[in-house]
Amino acid sequence: MVKKRIDLKSKAEIEIMREGGKILAHILLLMSEKVVPGASGEEFEEIADREIKKYGAISSFRNYKIHKNGVPFPSSICVSINDEIVHGFPKGKIIREGDIVGLDLGIKHEGLHTDSAITVGAGKLSAVAEKLVKVTKGSLSLALSEVKPGNRLGDIGYAVQGYVEKNGFSVVQDLVGHGVGRSIHEPPEVPNYGNRGEGLKLYPGMTFAIEPMVNAGKHYIKVDNDQWTIRTEDGSLSAHFEHSVAVTEKGCIILTELA
């Protein structure tokens, strides 16, 4: 079995990623403020494209291919609504009252990538939708508290899975977080499930994206004919939150926040 190399970043590189992450967080905030009934997916894309250009960054997602002969992703952002877990196209979408809207963005700043996502409600949400968003966001906070030297990836996944299942929801298991930095997707994979004390040990210089994807129903998924949009198999709601982080000697730096 061939082990994939984990690319450790220098303190200077982590600082560049932090700068890029602040730009990314700013763009997500601007988009989140526009999540209202009647808004279109194209409006979010316009904001993202304008701000990415304004800061001299590059979209990590536009024209990205998962597979060599696959369909290139057509947008700078993912807009995933209700039962769409991730990778939704913004084009042609209109936000309705009660929708939950996943906004996922990756940018390249001075040669290094960061990746982040939020889920925002439009207008008044159902009790299930409101709880799902709250629990998914909370599971990410618990995961971040496990990012420190000597801990393992299994500690992160265990924290997410335990909290999500305690609240009656399920963690998507066919999709995981990932390393990030010189590429938008690098080793290692970062599952949102696992056991304490298992998996890769965390070392200073590691940079990766933690991204709980949580379904109100079962964890199974299906892929649309566009080869990108991934939905819950049972049609239940799904929420998604994501931060790019760096492991340091002192613990965790959240790279994709404004503060």
Describe the model.
- With 259 residues, the protein is of the alpha+beta class.
- The chain has one domain (11-254): Creatinase/methionine aminopeptidase superfamily (Creatine Amidinohydrolase).
- The chain is 26% helix and 25% strand.
- The chain has helices spanning 11-32, 41-54, 127-144, 153-166; strands at 58-59, 77-81, 84-86, 100-109, 112-121, 170-171, 177-179, 186-190, 207-210, 213-215, 221-223, 230-232, 238-240, 243-248, 251-254.
- The strands form four sheets. A five-stranded antiparallel sheet has the order 8-7-9-14-15. Strands 1, 2, 4 and 5 form a four-stranded antiparallel sheet that branches. Strands 3-12-11 form a three-stranded antiparallel sheet, with no helix packed on it.
- Helix 1 (11-32) runs antiparallel to helix 2 (41-54) and helix 3 runs antiparallel to helix 4 (153-166).
- The protein is globular, with a radius of gyration of 17 Å.
